[in-house]
Amino acid sequence: MTSDATYTPQELSPDETLTELYRLALSVARENGSTITTGARGLGPYAFMAEVRRKGIVVRFLDRQEP
Fold first, then answer.
1. What whole-number distance in Å separates Cα of residue 42 and Cα of residue 63?
2. Is residue 2 part of a domain?
3. Mean pLDDT of successive 10-residue stretches along the chain, which has 67 residues
4. Does residue 4 sit within a domain?
5. Of 13, 28, 35, 36, which has fewest CB within 10 angstroms of its CB?
6. 35 belongs to a structural domain
7. Predicted model pTM
8. How far apart (Å, rounded) are the C-alpha atoms in residues 25 and 36?
9. Parent domain of 20
10. What is the DSSP letter of 65?
């Protein structure tokens, strides 16, 4: 995935998408009783983004907050 990937106004940018996916993963883990270590939380969305990009994964989310 490249950071210059085109996306429509209805889609989140690649960085916004990965940040939301990171937050969703943490939320699901907490809801299911997982313990998320301070170290794992401390890596944050930027480390998550870097790993996803390294693996070549492309994910797009629609921006559901638009009217």
1. 26
2. no
3. 58 81 85 82 80 82 61
4. no
5. 35
6. yes
7. 0.61
8. 11
9. 14-55
10. T
